[in-house]
Amino acid sequence: MDLARNPRPGGKPQGHAQSGGHQRRDHAYRLFDSRRTRHFQRRFADSPMKHLKVRQAINYAINRDGLASQLVGGESKPLQVACYPGQFGCDTTAATVYNYDPAKAKALLAEAGYPNGFETEIFAYRDRDYVEAIIGNLRAVGINAKLRYLKYAAMRDQQRGGKVPMSFQAWGSFSILDTSASAGTWFKGNPDDNIKDPQVQGWLQTADNALDPQVRKDNYRKALQRISEQAYWAPLFNYSMNYAYVSDLNFKPYPDELPRFVLSSWK
């Protein structure tokens, strides 16, 4: 095997015998940033999530650094903003920073009227081990979340029907380096927008349709700032795209997860 995408962490694919001999090829193991991001989404109606302090508490309760470094690994980094940092218009300085702080999360829950926490459901369709780690974080501050693990289509239908209080999802932005493909997809009033904030929708509409780059940046910043301040989401981390390939292959990975085999060559 000359190249493998996302081999098991710590593992390498088996090399094959070279022509005329029995020596195995050495494999270089490389970790690269991926623009696929993970986030935690909430629905507000008739649930504790309608309280801002509860949403903030959830953000403080999650150990993003631990998820990125211990579970995802590689080039994964924690996120605080509802877009991929490499995308046009993704201003990371617009984010309210929710560092891991269980004590603060508990205090916010008490201020919101939930001193003993509450029970809820969390829906997911992939990366069960990541979800279970988050469930542990939430349980530590008093939020007992029962996992509903479904196929994506089933979860999506329930989410669009307003039946999902919390969900754990990934988004690859169609491999497009523009915030219109991230925040613009989830907060602009389309079927996957559970928030329906008219201010955010207006800013995103302006940013998505403007031709002036500065107008786009300014409006994306306003939208991202409000999404973060209101804790509409809990952005978590970006993925790490891992490759293992033979040492005599010229191969350059890209963060959009699309390998350019046509640009590869043998040394």
From TrEMBL:
Residues 1-26 are annotated as: Disordered. It comes from the Bacteria. SUPFAM superfamilies: Periplasmic binding protein-like II. It holds the Pfam family SBP_bac_5. One of its GO terms (biological process) is peptide transport. One of its GO terms (cellular component) is outer membrane-bounded periplasmic space. GO terms for molecular function: peptide transmembrane transporter activity. Residues 30-191 form the Solute-binding protein family domain. PANTHER family: NICKEL-BINDING PERIPLASMIC PROTEIN, PERIPLASMIC BINDING COMPONENT OF ABC TRANSPORTER. This is Dipeptide-binding ABC transporter, periplasmic substrate-binding component.
